[in-house]
Amino acid sequence: MSDASHAMAQSAPTPVPASVDGLAGRDAALRQVRALRQWFEQHEPSSPVALLLWQAERLVGKRFEAVFRAIPEDLVERWVRESA
Questions:
Q1: Residue-wise pLDDT tens digits, 38-47
Q2: Which residues fall within 8 angstroms of residue 54, CB to CB, at 6 or more apart?
Q3: Which of 60, 57, 25 is nearest to 41 (CA)?
Q4: % helix / strand / coil in the chain, to the nearest 5?
């Protein structure tokens, strides 16, 4: 495991209760992400946020390794540095 993947695994959020802020589970959270993506597509079409949210939708439910492989390692390293 590379340093970046190790750091990302270490910084992964801990599980939360099934109902957070009115969301009753993964499907409800995914619907919210989809609604946010659609809002950005409609109201801020030049924003890269819609693309990031689309990618998040695509990665929901995938194993950590698959998600990590989908993100370039240099980008993960930068995110880890910036979050410290």
A1: 999 999 999 9
A2: 37
A3: 57
A4: 65, 0, 30
Q: Which two tokens stand for residue 81?
A: 């540095």
CA gap 34, 59 in Å, rounded: 12
What averages of pLDDT result for each successive group of 10 residues across the chain (84 residues)?
A: 60 55 86 97 96 95 92 92 91
Query: Domain limits of the chain?
Result: 24-83
Query: 72: which 2 tokens?
Result: 């370039």
Long-range CB contact pairs, 32-41, < 8 A, 24+: 33/57, 33/60
